[in-house]
Amino acid sequence: MLTLQVIRREVQGDVVLLTLAHSEGIALPAFRAGAHIDLHLSAELVRPYSLCGDPQDRQHYQLGILKEGRSKGGSLAVHALREGDAIAVSEPRNLFELEERAAHTLLIGGGIGVTPMLAMAAELHAAGRAFTLHYCTRSRAQAAFVPQLERAPYAAQVQLHFSNEQRLDLAAVLTDVPAETHVYVCGPIRLMDAVTEQAQTLGYSSGQIHQECFSAEVQTGGSAFDVVAATSGITVKVLENQTIVEALAQAGLKVNVSCKQGICGSCLTDVLEGDVDHRDHYLTDEEKADGDQILLCCSRAKCGRLVIDL
Question: Of 42, 71, 79, 95, which has the highest C-beta tally within 10 A?
């Protein structure tokens, strides 16, 4: 855990841009593009946010956070931060790394989903690798990061798409590229689904399509079942409208969670016995088929008893 200070705060529309640094100027843990950190906003409020700054900058972490209209507390707490405030953060974790062997990289960011793409563009540019960044928003007036992108050293590789001006033509974007192009997309579910569907139609393999979602609708309810936490020696019953995390907490076993939507992977746990009903957006189809891991914040059991390594 790190304690950092907000040294700069800038608001662009509904997005607050935060620059964090160590109060004594100590170099921060290194990260690769696609990484995120958890902000510990209170004892019970922990949220993951993508790092959008240059990975070569070891003195600062930069974040861009949208003020959500239906916030459950995270974005409101972030927007309340002021310059000089101290904040506890995790070390960077990466679930969205770039493929170094890609002949070309397509970065597609929708709305606030552009944040990891900014770090990716900086890393690819520094490495001299071929890429194009497509940034999609409803309008120029609502878009954050536009001044930053227009003056970036890779500005010639950036294409802006505003719904009220010129929409993104996915077929054209995904076709006019070299073979062995890898696609990275982050943003609204409908955008990610559209990119994935179009790419698959054009012959991209699943290994060439990468996505990260910031929010997702998950159904956590279902039939009751028992969970055995083997290491802790605790057995709990997970009720119909209860998550495994909630049931374990009632028994005194706290699980570290962040997004609570099956996105970030912070509550990923090994399964020792039982059949998992996967509800998450984190594990790949292959990992879900293996059945040896579970996201405790949202997934359930298909059977009456699940044994986990906790």
Answer: 79
